[in-house]
Specification:
Layout lengths: L1 H21 L1 H9 L5 H34 L5 H21 L11 H23 L5
Amino acid sequence: MYTGLGLTVLAAAVPYADRSATHLMADHIRSGYPGYDQARIDTAVDAYVVLLSVVGVLGVVCWLGAAWAVRAGKRWARPASAVMLVFGIGVGLAELLTKDTSGATGLPPALGWVGMAPCLAGLWAVVLLWRRPQSA
């Protein structure tokens, strides 16, 4: 679970690194909307960074809650973790596949795939949770 937490923090930090260094998001928006000036592109990038930050914070809360529930031996930890996994996969796929009005995906594929990384850890965590005997 802590691997998933770390991947979630990393996925939430990547948009900030992109905004200051690689500019994948800005280039992606610029190619989809060639008529946008730099100020409008910057506004769109800022909106995506805020959105991805909110998703990241919610993910961190879910990972911490799931880890606590498992460690405390709560009976609802398994089903709650499975439900969080389904929601996480849904959000990750939405980030990866949702198209905007330009016809391209809203996020560049590289950033979309970064958002899917915590889902792999979540899948593994849920499999391990359901394979071990449930504590009383």
